[in-house]
């Protein structure tokens, strides 16, 4: 399949989900996260392939299941879906479901029944108050029992979907010190009485995506809920974060496109100083830069999706994923800054049609790993003797 045809197919997929999301969310109760989640999930967005269904790696990967998912996420953003809900979908799909579908056993896949139709939600529980980007500083521990099961103790913090999730991918210490084998990953039933959910965190960005803490007080976890082998948690975390950095910002492509469209329409019809606003070279330069940043971002995210569709070692993509996350997040911020400059006061008026909050784009510089730390990791992969 040639590049032009592939892009046309992905654009068509995005357009399909744009129409579908607009239809599904019509009449959905505002502020009811789970109800709106289920509505969107009924589109099939959260269906993931099993290994036996994965496309032939010798065929062109451009419209494989990962590329399809990225285009679908872009589409729900184009429908005007609130950014927090769109982000939460991308976070679950790209940061948990897609990276895990090759790692889980059939029994573990059965534990996630209801995820694909939206009746069950997942969360990725790795961050703790004392450390986010440094997983080996974590203190949550899993104590192995004589029967092979585990007991979890400790608190995970700042976890997206924690207030509403049904199953958590929880990373806990099973070894001591900073050994690369000190962590293990578990699928944990969050309905257990020994799991306490903290109050929902009040945020200034991505407000529609619930965030909170999870406290485990001797939570029993069966042996078959261990993802991979004991001590492989850092490897599992490396896989989930690489996928997330590569693809999460697909959720921003829709809002970026909508903002560009609105600014272009505004600049073409707004008149001041006796001429159209869009006739100004300075305005044209800002609009062109917005278009450049959107095109670059879409190209990078789709390219990463195509590479992940090909299969192979995810570890080898860690630097490319980090660079994608850095570039797209910074382009998201820059595009929105242009929009605020061109819209003036209307950028800060909710019903103006030109609202352009910088809070959501600025948050993108931090989640899935702060850009400064990701830059250090990229430099280290290039051979520089630099540490975090």
Layout of helices and strands:
Blueprint: H1 3-25, H2 33-41, H3 65-78, H4 83-100, H5 106-111, E1 122-125, E2 141-144, E3 150-160, E4 167-173, E5 183-189, E6 195-197, E7 211-221, E8 226-227, H6 233-247, H7 250-269, E9 271-272, E10 275-276, H8 281-309, H9 318-343, H10 359-363, H11 371-381
Parallel strand pairs: 1-4
Antiparallel strand pairs: 2-3, 3-7, 4-5, 5-8, 6-7, 9-10
Strand content: 5-15%
Structural class: alpha+beta
- Tell me the Rg in angstroms: 21 Å
Distance between the termini: 42 Å
Helix amount, in percent?
40-55%
Q: How many beta-strand elements?
A: 10
Number of helical segments? Answer: 11
Specify the biggest β-sheet.
4 strands, mixed
Low-confidence stretches: 51-61
- Shape, principal axes of CA atoms: globular
The order of strands across the largest sheet is: 1-4-5-8
Order of helices and strands: HHHHHEEEEEEEEHHEEHHHH
The average pLDDT value, as a whole number, equals 93
The gist of it:
Helix content is 45%, strand content 14%.
Task: Describe this protein's structure.
Helices cover 45% and strands 14% of the residues. With 388 residues, the chain is α+β, with helices and mostly antiparallel strands. The strands form three sheets. It has a four-stranded mixed sheet with strand order 1-4-5-8. The protein has a four-stranded antiparallel sheet with strand order 2-3-7-6, with no helix packed on it. Helix 4 packs across helix 6, helix 7 runs parallel beside helix 9 and helix 8 runs antiparallel to helix 9. The protein is globular and about 80 Å long.
